[in-house]
Amino acid sequence: MHIDHCMRGGRPAIRLYGITESGNSVLCYVTDFLPYIYIHTPDGFQPHHDAQLMKWLEDKSKSLVNVVNDGQFVYDETIYESNIDFELRFMIDIKILGVNWIKLKKGTYEEKYQHSSRCQYVVETSYETLISHDFSDQWSRTAPVTILSFDIECTAQPGKFPVAQLDPVIQIACVILVHGETEPCANIVLVLGGCTGIPSYTVRSYNTEEELLWAWYDLFIYVDPDVIIGYNIESFDILYLVDRAKFLFGNNSLSKSGRNKDEYTKIEDNLTTNKAYGFRDTKRILMHGRAVFDIYRVIEREFKLPSYKLDHVSDHFLGEKKEDVKYSDILKLYDGTNDDRQRLAQYCLKDALLPLHLMSKLSLLINYIELARVTGVPFVYLLACGQQIRGLSQICRTAFRDGYLVEAIDYQEGSTVKPYEGATVLDACVGYYTVPIATLDFSSLYLSIMMAHNLCYTTQITPKRAKEMGFAKDIDYIETPNGYLFVSQMVRRGLIPTILSELISARKCIKAAIKNEADPEKYKILEGRQLALKLSANSLYGMTGATKRYLLCVSIASSITSYGREMIQTIKEVVEKKYPESKVIYGDTDSVMINFGDIPLEDALRIGREAAEYTTGFFKKLINLEFEKMYFPYLLTSKKRYAGLYYTNTQKYDKLDVKGIQIVRRDSCNFIRDLLK
């Protein structure tokens, strides 16, 4: 579930934290694996020149010329694979995936007594003895990980947000579940002051806040959770407990909550910015040997909702709401009777239960486990590092397998990248249409373009090199609409097309297996895996155009969008020529909306399917245009803003589909959304 590294005897050692089939926690020290990078050695380089090479590397001078004892060498400035984390480098080389099973044969490891570890088993072994199982067949199951969901309640001054240096923690609710079980094995609430009991729940009362916090810490260590969940616990609950303990005790005693007794939990700033949310200052909690899985952050990342408050999210997905306690009532209830504090305890417990229910209902933990397996990254990377690490891992694994090296791009903060033209958005013929409007969509457009045209880091070639090799255009190489050259698959198949082909093929097999799977737990795993395969494929395009990370390649990203623009225009020309009465009224990125005239809905559905099949013939193999839906009627207010009744059959519309207008915009109030709908 977790991986990091430490120093042992002056050398780095990998630490693998996991769970056995019977639920015991394990810490495995893996020795003898050392970090490394690749560089070009100059002509005439010999082993006895190692000292000079090391000096050049340690100085980080990036000087092209270093003088050595017997002459002058020119070092290539390009460094390969230096931007791969040590842990990820280890996993790639040893063929270990995220959250997969590892076997140690008897006699290949040494048991250690470690007073500094909270794990039930501590062993040490060489990396050469590890046996890594992939996630097929019997190894697809998940270990019985212990999950702790918790929530805290604090007092606060009227109208103000709690401040750790002023406002005490008055209740902490804990719900403990073993993965694979349907019901929690314990529901416990720790209360400051007296409290009436709650049937089927354990209520523990304490006279002082100090006793309450220490009781929480002791309970946490006793439960020894593998996964800690809650709602917004990274930016509030955990942070507040740590800061409050510092204020009361004058030290970080409660911060040693990981599986290493002598190491503090790390709290890091996580500054992000994007179009949807703007600039955000959040926190990232790193506990050695444990995974913090904040349900709020997962929901916010995976779903588009008008509000991410727990009450709204739970009502939306579960049909459940929080207990009816207003924020302003918390202090009154705490200062009230034992029955009042019981009501507050029920409120606190519900806030700990709802994240568990959301995790189960939406298969969030299973989906992220499968995503870690498919992309080959540690589980904790998925929330901490974003999408690009997934693509990097897949590319590096395939490169390692096929004998390529991945160049390390040295991104400098503040540097700029030449912008390139994005997708086409055809002018919108604004209006209210009372005739059927057909929508034709490309299936996975950008991924299809990369595969069909063999676009990859490993296939780009310069005009000069193509001429030197005697390559023929449109046979040995293609020229993209914006002027870049890439060799064809008959010359060399690119890494990215290879990865995409493997992912898509695997997803087809998984989707076929889902149809015949009767076991509910296995069904959830397979669903999570097919979703992970889809997300993994989509991440590969994004990283080619990302300006601040690992594998920026403007020539690939801009070539993809140039093909997309060309293809949208091709659809417009082909359809309007084939069907003279038709008119393309709007197009955006990978889809077009077509008015075939005032014809019955059933005829529009038939012509839409026919037009998709006919137009597909104008594109390269692997690029498919599909008839997905019909809008009738249809309101088009501007680019990226429209609404209509969504039909896939002639009997009844499927839903009201709305894009971009106030009904679905998160910056609109509920009244405006409801009124417009």
Automatic annotation (TrEMBL):
Enzyme class per UniProt: transferase
EC number: 2.7.7.7
Domain DNA-directed DNA polymerase family B multifunctional: 377-675
Keywords from the UniProt entry: DNA replication, DNA-binding, DNA-directed DNA polymerase, Nucleotidyltransferase, Transferase
InterPro entries in the cross-refs: DNA-dir_DNA_pol_B, DNA-dir_DNA_pol_B_CS, DNA-dir_DNA_pol_B_exonuc, DNA-dir_DNA_pol_B_multi_dom, DNA/RNA_pol_sf, DNA_pol_B_thumb, DNA_pol_palm_dom_sf, DNA_pol_type-B
Residue span, DNA-directed DNA polymerase family B exonuclease domain: 78-313
Transmembrane segments: none
GO CC annotations, alphabetized: delta DNA polymerase complex
One Gene Ontology MF term: DNA binding
The family this protein is said to belong to: Belongs to the DNA polymerase type-B family.
Protein name, entry field: DNA polymerase
